[in-house]
């Protein structure tokens, strides 16, 4: 349960255990990666560092399920009783289109720069193409600039890089929970940055109009609680569309969250907008386009970082 509380993954233990954990001071609940777990509570490997051993216990049910899936994949003809994976966001429905495109002759391109180290931010031709792509599909009012685009191998790497450069070890980021557990690895496990939670209620409470609604009041309370206990919060992570809840924040809601962050800028609060699955929504194009912050004026653009996952 302690691991679940830190990882923001839920599960394990009873409601009483969770209430007891929430009642503890933040200093006890949100500790650094070396102190959150007693090494005697799990089997250590002599071949790993303390951090490596902690990383090892983060392999939870999702990875166990993924391993089982690969060992017994469903196939309509060869293995009709196999496992169907609903737990991983992949472009399987586009495979026929992608395979047709990737096997055309113009894709058979090999030049020396592709086999050499590129700019550390990614090949410029790729960054230019990403900027053009998002400018078009997100209907940006002004063209996005390639020099503002950075390409890494997955949003997990982006979370790790941003946690490293935006926060010092032991500082924290603010995030609404529940959230995609993989963020914990990038931010907490690799970046040694704590997670401060704005808890979303499964039932309508207070000023909320729907279950699991994120409000500025919940963000403010979580931030104030953290500061009261000496935890320095450097950034706010917003997931839109929300993973795993599927919520799509309206423009007015997003503006409220961003204005909240701007008000807190005297404490150096930055925003990481993870729009990982922005072009995967079953929604009118106008709504999908508005999910991307390039379509409206950001209150504080120099402090706002936006992610997009090309694998989605």
Automatic annotation (TrEMBL):
InterPro entries per the UniProt record, alphabetical: Aminotransferase_I/II_large (IPR004839), Ethylene_sulfur-biosynth (IPR050478), PyrdxlP-dep_Trfase (IPR015424), PyrdxlP-dep_Trfase_major (IPR015421)
Domain of life: Eukaryota
Keyword Transmembrane annotated: yes
Residue stretches spanning the membrane: 269-291
Domain Aminotransferase class I/classII large: 84-264
SUPFAM superfamilies xrefs: PLP-dependent transferases
A Pfam cross-reference name: Aminotran_1_2
CDD domains assigned: AAT_like
GO biological process: amino acid metabolic process
MF annotations from Gene Ontology: pyridoxal phosphate binding; transaminase activity
Keywords: Membrane, Pyridoxal phosphate, Transmembrane, Transmembrane helix
Protein name: 1-aminocyclopropane-1-carboxylate synthase-like 1
Organism the protein comes from: Tauraco erythrolophus
